[in-house]
Amino acid sequence: MILFKRAETLAATHARTAVLFLAPTFLVLAAVGLYPLSRTIWLSFTDANFFADEARFVWFDNYIDLHSNPDWWAALYNTVFFAVASVALQVVLGIAFAMVLNVNFTGRKFARAANLIPLVIALTVASQLWKWMYHDVFGVVNDALLRLGLIQDPVAWLNNPSTALWAIIAMSTWKFVPFVTLLVLASLQGIPKELYEAAEIDGAGPIARFIRVTLPMLKSAIAVVVVFRMLDALRVFDIVYVMTGNSPATVTISMFARQQMIEFGLVGAGSAASVEIFLLIILGTMVYMRMLKVEDR
C-alpha cells in the first residue's frame, strides 16, 4: 500500500513537472495561434472594414453572402481540384521514384541527392522560374514541344483557362514529389526482406509483391504524406499568385480571402472566408483519418 502511494505521488510529480516544461510552449502557441484564430472568428460575425471606424455585429450575414457568391464556389472548385490532382500525382510519382531509389545501382547516391533539388528551391523562386518556362514566346516548354513536333504553335499555358490550372499542378508536382519520395523511401528501407522472400517462395511475382507486401507496409507513410500535402494544397496561395495572379481560372479560396480583406477592405467578409478555409481543412483531415480507421478495422 505504501509503495502504491509512493508510485502515485511520483507519477503526480512527473505530471506536474511535464506541465511546467510544456507551459511556455502552450503559451506561445496560444499567443500566435489561438488568439488570431479567435479574433478572426469574431471578425467574421461583424461588418468590419478598412473604411469604417467601428464594426457592427451582423451575425451570419457574411457567411450567407459568401455562400451566395459564385466567385467563392469557383475558387473552392479550383482549390479542391488542385489539391486532389496535385496530391494524387505526387503520391503516385513519389512512390515510383522511391521504389527506383531503393534499388542498388551505380550512381544511386547522386540520384538521391539530385532528387532533393526541387525541394530546396524557394517556392516563390520556383514558381517564377516555371512562369518563365511557360512563356509563350521565350519559354523552354514551348520550344521543346515545338522541336518535338507535339504542338504546331506556341501555347500561352498560363493565360489559357483550360491549361492554366494544369500548368500549376505540374509545377506543384515537380516541387513536392521529392518530399513524398523521401518519406516513402525511409519506410521502404524499414520493410523486412524476409517478407519479400516469403512472398517469392509462395510464387508471388513483382506486381503481386508490390500490392500484397509493399503497399500495406507503406500505408502509414502514405497516410502521413496525404495529410501533410492535402493540408498544404488546400491553403495554396503563393504558387498560384506568382504564376497567374488573380486570374479567375485559377483563383483559390486563400486568394479569395486575401482579395476580400486586402483589395476590397472587407475584413468581416475576408474573415468569414478564412474561417471556412480552416473548417474545410479540419473537416477534410478528420474524414480522411476516419476512413483510415475504418480500413484498419
Walkthrough of the structure:
One of its GO terms (biological process) is transmembrane transport. The chain crosses the membrane at residues 20-37, 75-101, 113-130, 164-186, 264-289. This is Trehalose/maltose transport system permease protein. Belongs to the binding-protein-dependent transport system permease family. It is found in: Cell membrane. Helices cover 75% and strands 0% of the residues. It has 14 helices and no strands. The protein is mainly alpha-helical and 297 residues long. The radius of gyration is 25 Å and the shape is globular. The protein has helices at residues 2-43, 61-67, 70-101, 108-115, 117-120, 123-133, 140-148, 164-188, 193-201, 206-217, 219-234, 238-244, 253-263, 267-296. Helix 13 runs antiparallel to helix 14 (267-296). It folds into two domains: 1-45; 60-296, MetI-like fold (Orthogonal Bundle), CATH 1.10.3720.10.
